[in-house]
Amino acid sequence: MGCGNFFFTILVTFSVALITYNIIISANSPLQQGLPGPSRSSSSSISVDPIIQMPLHRSRGKLGSSKRLFHTAVTASDSVYNTWQCRIMYYWFKKFQNEPNSGMGGFTRILHSGKPDKYMDEIPTFVAQPLPAGMDRGYIVLNRPWAFVQWLQQADIKEDYILMSEPDHIIVKPIPNLSTDGLGAAFPFFYIEPKKYESVLRKYFPENKGPITNIDPIGNSPVIVGKESLKKIAPTWMNVSLAMKKDPETDKAFGWVLEMYAYAVASAVHGVGNILYKDFMIQPPWDKEIGKKFIIHYTYGCDYNMKGELTYGKIGEWRFDKRSYDTVAPPRNLPMPPAGVPESVVTLVRMVNEATANIPNWGE
Questions:
Q1: Which one of 65, 95, 217, 249 has the fewest beta carbons within 10 angstroms of its own beta carbon?
Q2: How does the record classify its membrane topology (predicted)?
Q3: pLDDT at 181
Q4: Within 10 Å of residue 51's Cβ, how many Cβ atoms?
Q5: In which residue ranges of the chain is pLDDT below 70?
């Protein structure tokens, strides 16, 4: 046992030293990695739908004859807030995993608390080490890329593709593998604007890497990407995230979405383009209908009066906001919204209620 502890201590020490070295290199010199995979500037035979940048053979509905499974990975802390969301997320993952048209293979919660918790038997979990104290500079999200680096290096992942998801995602129907031809599949975020911040981003994506439009308006989630591509992207994502946080100008420009920009940059650095798939998810209350979407992302609070009218910015007579449950899990059987509230919000609450009614020992 003593020998094992000594070996673990040496391994962690080496990892921390390696991170520190990479931070220094990333923060003080241009990123000079090679560009494996297809180049965005090179000629290509892929036809692209100009509306959502989806290859045309996919937009015509041809998913291919072979089933290409992806592994769903969700990073989380051991907080009550993250944990209840993960339990609901995994409940719905299991519901749709083996349904027709599903490309959903295995599932892993990447727990970056550094130690197991009591939900290891309920949710398949990989325990990752957090960043060394102080390295995240109060921005806990920086643990996400470091956790992915550890998981990709140490875990035995059977599938050839990865879906990076988040605790506050609810899967509403089976998700097929939306990536193809060396491209990832990612949701485009309106607030990720590489062209607007070109002068800042050129610190991490110099002009010799190509036009700034090579950086897609995405974060790391939801994204389906080839496993081998992600193994190349993840260390760069980690280093760029840390370097961005260390730079006052970048930190001020990007704020809470800094790590999202870092992933977009890392993907571009390695020549991995993305299908911008608008139907990947919805975000209530702004998106009102489920339609063809696969995921509900409940990042925004939903506030309504009893007439079913949105009162965003003001606490409603009826509300659902995940932040109301930062220290305690939501109770079972939450009140349903009043008549007139959009389908997306009604579906969200209904699915939360079904999950909490069926997950054993909820709230304990």
A1: 65
A2: Single-pass membrane protein
A3: 87
A4: 9
A5: 1-66
Q: Report pLDDT digits (tens) over 92-120.
A: 999 999 999 999 999 999 999 999 999 99
**H or E stretch covering 282:** strand 281-282
Q: Which long-range contacts (CB under 8 A, 24 or more apart) does 247-251 make?
A: 247/27, 247/203, 249/200, 250/200, 250/203
Residues near 177 by Cβ (< 8 Å), separated by ≥ 6?
A: 63, 67, 68, 69, 70, 103, 161, 185, 224
Angle, nearest 10°, between helix axes 143-154 and 227-246?
150
Residue 336: what pLDDT? Answer: 98
- Asked if 250 and 268 count as a contact pair (C-beta separation under 8 A), the reply is no
Separation CA 252–CA 255 (nearest Å): 6
Name the token pair of 278: 């608008």
Residue of 165, 172, 173, 159 lying closest to 100 (CA atoms): 173
Say if CB 110 and CB 195 are below 8 A apart.
no
